[in-house]
Design brief:
The complex is a heterodimer of chains A (about 425) and B (about 160).
Chain A (H helix, E strand, L loop, with lengths): L4 H9 L10 E5 L2 E4 L4 H11 L10 E3 L10 H16 L4 E2 L8 H7 L8 E4 L13 E4 L2 H10 L1 E5 L3 E7 L8 H12 L8 E5 L8 H9 L8 E4 L3 H10 L19 E6 L6 E3 L7 E3 H4 L6 E4 L1 H4 L2 H11 L7 E4 L4 H9 L2 H8 L2 E2 L20 E4 L15 E4 L2 H10 L10
Parallel strand pairs in A: 2-3, 2-5, 3-4, 5-6, 8-9, 8-11, 9-10, 14-15, 14-17, 15-16, 17-18
Antiparallel strand pairs in A: 1-7, 12-13
Chain B lengths: L1 E6 L6 H4 L10 H5 L10 H4 L5 E4 L11 H8 L4 E4 L4 H9 L3 E4 L3 H4 L5 E5 L4 E4 L4 E4 L5 H9 L2 H8 L1
Parallel strand pairs in B: 1-2, 2-3, 3-4
Antiparallel strand pairs in B: 1-5, 5-6, 6-7
Helix pairs in contact in B: 7-8
Classes of the chains: A alpha/beta (about 425), B alpha/beta (about 160).
The complex binds iron/sulfur cluster (SF4).
């Protein structure tokens, strides 16, 4: 039976020859991501229920990131619980402060993501790792606890929707604009319970960093997972980042695999896109929303806090001054050092930005850049729900690092193409 | 008997159900004080134990935070009836022994403050105010088994 890449990975993880959408299967998990918001609760549940064991301390990756460094006493307590558990259970890949970074940027960078694997994480944007031809999905604390204890979870095999990304991205248009355009087209529940499979020539010109921005936001269309097939670009990244267990299994969708729908996107026709408040699906071309006055620009997060994003922002900010509060958040310590070594920090400083430690910070309205009532923020993050970055009456405008940098310079939503 | 709190809107998300500024705790009682705060600051005062939330599609979209379910449970909410649910939220509900009820046009069939009674196994909502019975598709058997055991971990514990 012809199968999609997602069906093949799930079938293998369930020890079956084939599966089809709708099948309920028990799946073996290869990697579990734990962070400071959802994991402490999972740990407490396991303790309470007396099933206080870890199925494999080598298959769990732990990093505090949401409120790291601890923003207040309560989050410090969460970190303390996570830390003592990770040490007690001898979790091999534990990244405490100094090594800790935004989970979805950290795990691929540190070589924990492999093609063909089945990955879960206590975070909705765990779908990011699908950029590496893996099945990857977000779960809550109870599922996390069950996965930690048993190494298994039940899943319903999702139907797949295929997105063919045709054409070449014009100058000033990035993978963030592509995914915002896709979500604007299908809506925040357009792929509910589905796997979003991205293919097409435009991907051939995108780095793994850029691809991760696309799979990162699959959940914003309601999807269970996002996935991109394996190719030379993925191989090169993996050669550079996998530190051990360098072998992995590459699955590919069959040519006659069944898709619920196929959607073609002509990337060469795209303009920079901004998702207006309060849904990620409110994407508008920059020409339709340029000029809206903004109070803050935020460049960071698991969506766009990687080195390539910081380089793009720096290229626009170089020799210019920002007109509004601008916060740069390198997503991991390694990215932080790269940005420093490449001289980007000097550019940001001269432009009048502030550079933060790696953290989720204000992306989820935690700290490090919270909005007051009525304030507007242009942000390279992935969600612009009511109150996401602060006061319930504040507003978030989702955009690419280039658009966020250009808007920072003008103090209003701005088209990045005029700075290129 | 349960009272319905109707929100005629799609995409009620986890940031509305429990804002991230309160995620520095996983204590259900503390979370409950802020339940639905970004959407309706009066909700916690209005909600009596067993009451239900009725909403449009894609309820619970956004973050994987199970805190959203704990906040609802802590505030006394008995069930959420919605046109459809976001995937992770739906799973979290079942895992916590909490009922997500899918009902087409839920916000038209149930009005704000209607008195309702739910038979989960049969898949029937009795709308006492409107004197009507509304059928819904009961959850799959394995999900009901998890909920009846009190949640996923209890269920796994029992299977062993
Ligand atoms: S950066 Fe934002 S979206 Fe990404 S994991 Fe952190 S809080 Fe979630």
């Amino acid at each position: 039976m012809p199968m999609t890449i997602t069906e093949k990975i799930l079938a293998a993880a369930a020890g079956k020859n084939e599966v089809e959408p709708g099948d309920i299967i028990d799946v073996k998990i290869d990697c579990i991501m734990c962070h400071d918001v959802t994991a402490p609760a999972a740990i407490s549940m396991l303790k309470e229920k007396g099933i206080d064991k870890v199925f494999d301390p080598e298959k769990i990756v732990v990093t505090p990131d949401h409120f790291q460094p601890a923003k207040d006493i309560k989050s410090a307590e969460l970190h303390k619980r996570l830390d003592s558990w990770a040490r007690e259970k001898k979790i091999r890949y534990y990244y405490p402060l100094g090594k800790a970074g935004v989970c979805h940027a950290l795990l691929p960078e540190q070589g924990h993501i492999r093609p063909g694997d089945c990955i879960v994480g206590g975070d909705s944007h765990t779908c990011t790792y699908g950029a590496f031809a893996a099945f990857s999905t977000g779960i809550g604390s109870t599922d996390l606890a069950a996965a930690i204890a048993t190494g298994k979870l039940w899943f319903r095999v999702p139907a797949s929707i295929k997105f063919v990304l045709n054409g070449k991205l014009p100058k000033g248009v990035y993978s963030k604009d592509v995914i915002l355009a896709v979500i604007a087209k299908i809506g925040t529940d357009g792929a509910l319970y589905k796997a979003m499979e991205f293919t097409g020539p435009a991907l051939g010109e995108m780095s793994m960093e850029a691809r991760m921005t696309i799979t990162n936001m699959a959940i914003e269309a309601g999807a269970k997972s996002g996935i991109i097939g394996f190719d030379e670009i993925a191989k090169k990244y993996l050669d550079e980042h996998l530190k051990e267990r360098k072998q992995y299994k590459v699955y590919q969708s069959d040519a006659d695999a069944k898709y619920e729908q196929t959607i073609e996107i002509d990337c060469s026709k795209l303009e920079p896109v901004v998702a207006l408040p309060h849904l990620p699906s409110n994407g508008k071309s920059i020409s339709d929303c340029a000029g809206i006055k903004i109070d803050q620009s935020y460049i960071g997060s698991c969506t766009n806090g990687r080195i390539e994003d910081l380089r793009i922002a720096a290229s626009i900010l170089k020799g210019r001054k920002v007109a509004i509060r601008t916060i740069i958040v390198p997503a991991t310590p390694f990215i932080w050092k790269q940005a420093m070594d490449e001289g980007l920090f000097g550019i940001f400083y001269d432009a009048g930005c502030v550079i933060s430690a790696p953290t989720c910070g204000a992306c989820l309205g935690g700290f490090m850049g919270i909005l007051a009532e009525g304030e507007k923020c242009v942000s390279t993050t992935n969600r612009n729900f009511v109150g996401r970055m602060g006061h319930p009456k504040s507003e978030v405008y989702l955009a690419s690092p280039a658009a966020a940098a250009a808007s920072a310079v003008e103090g209003k939503l701005a088209d990045p193409r005029k700075y290129m | 008997m349960a009272k319905a709190h109707v929100y005629k809107r799609d995409h009620i998300n986890t940031d509305e159900i429990i804002p991230a500024r309160y995620l520095n705790t996983d204590n259900a009682a503390e979370l409950a004080q802020h339940c639905m705060e970004n959407l309706d600051t009066e909700f916690v005062k209005k909600c009596k134990p067993g009451d239900c939330i009725v909403a449009g599609g894609d309820f619970g979209c956004g973050s994987s935070r199970e805190h959203a379910v704990w906040a609802l449970q802590g505030a006394g909410v008995g069930a959420v009836i919605a046109k459809s649910f976001a995937r992770i939220f739906y799973r979290n509900c079942i895992n916590c022994g909490f009922y997500p009820i899918e009902l087409e046009n839920a916000t038209e069939k149930i009005n704000n403050s209607d008195e309702i009674e739910i038979d989960y196994e049969k898949g029937v909502i009795k709308n006492k105010t409107q004197k009507k019975e509304i059928k819904f598709k009961p959850l799959p058997d394995f999900a009901i088994a998890i909920i009846n055991d009190g949640g996923l971990l209890e269920h796994i514990g029992k299977k062993k």
